[in-house]
Amino acid sequence: MIWLADAVLVLHALIVLFIVGGLLAIWAGAALRHAWVRNRVFRIVHLAAIGSVALLAALDLPCPLTVLEDRLRTGTASGQGFIQRWVSAWMYYDLPLWVFAVAYVAFLLIVALTWIRIPPRDR
């Protein structure tokens, strides 16, 4: 089942990349006046993705993908979230869960403000 846990990890990383990279792409695209940054479907999916992450963190609920990966690897769920675990692994730096919750909600607010400043358009 390790291969399945690795697949969940890759999916999780792609979602993180979509959330963070999507915001940066929106900003860059808006600066370059690309029309795709105002695509309503893309923007709704992006907002919903970070909104889900922020809501789970604010409610102190574990990410379902992290729980699934843990169960596939070890048979049990870990107490750490995806970002916390990999920040710890990559940087050997551990932060309390509330720090990540604040960061996720702050990122959600940035995405929401971007929605207002660079609004999507109907077709």
UniProtKB/TrEMBL annotation:
Any Pfam family matching the protein: DUF2784
Keyword Transmembrane helix: yes
Domain of life: Bacteria
UniProt KW keywords: Membrane, Plasmid, Transmembrane, Transmembrane helix
TM regions (residue ranges): 6-29, 41-59, 95-116
Identification of the protein by name: Putative transmembrane protein
Source organism phylogeny: Bacteria, Pseudomonadati, Pseudomonadota, Betaproteobacteria, Burkholderiales
